[in-house]
């Protein structure tokens, strides 16, 4: 990262350490060694690993995560993922409202069956966020999956109630804890060509992400 870009990021209040920005040439932590990125290849993602990585810890019950999906993710998809420059990777992190935990169990169960159905359900949780609560989330999940995807919604709801895929849920939570990420979601870790740049959280714009990843240089 060059000095101009580092100063720009500092000026907009990026949270977390910016690696590789000092004149002494501090080495950056790579995506292969960062605790938040443990078992990265097994996580839901759009795009291919090997370039930039936008690693997002998100809670389906989090209103700020919903705004990130509405306002920022489309530009990530267009300018990073679809352009072949990197990957957007999700780790679910249920720390906001109580219905987020069973929803996360359902997401992991869905991902184990069908990755495209996972993304459909993830989008559905944000689109209909205000309609969910701990009492109805799994019934509504089952209905959505059965009507809108090829996945057996009742089987997913049963898995979620029985916490069949809790190992995957706990692995995401453990990765966040190991990295000391806190609980202000969304938490976005940015890796420029595999090297850690910074962590940002809360309201995150695409302009900030593009600046951090060197996509606005020139």
Automatic annotation (TrEMBL):
Q: Keywords in alphabetical order, please.
A: Electron transport, Transport
Quick one: signal sequence residues? none
Q: Which residues form the Thioredoxin-like fold domain?
A: 52-190
Q: Which SUPFAM superfamilies match?
A: Thioredoxin-like
InterPro entries, per the entry: TAT_signal_bac_arc (IPR019546), Thioredoxin-like_fold (IPR012336), Thioredoxin-like_sf (IPR036249)
Cite the Pfam families for this sequence.
Thioredoxin_4
Transmembrane stretches, start-end: none
Q: What protein family is recorded?
A: Belongs to the glutaredoxin family.
Protein name, per record: Thioredoxin-like fold domain-containing protein
- The organism is Haloarcula argentinensis
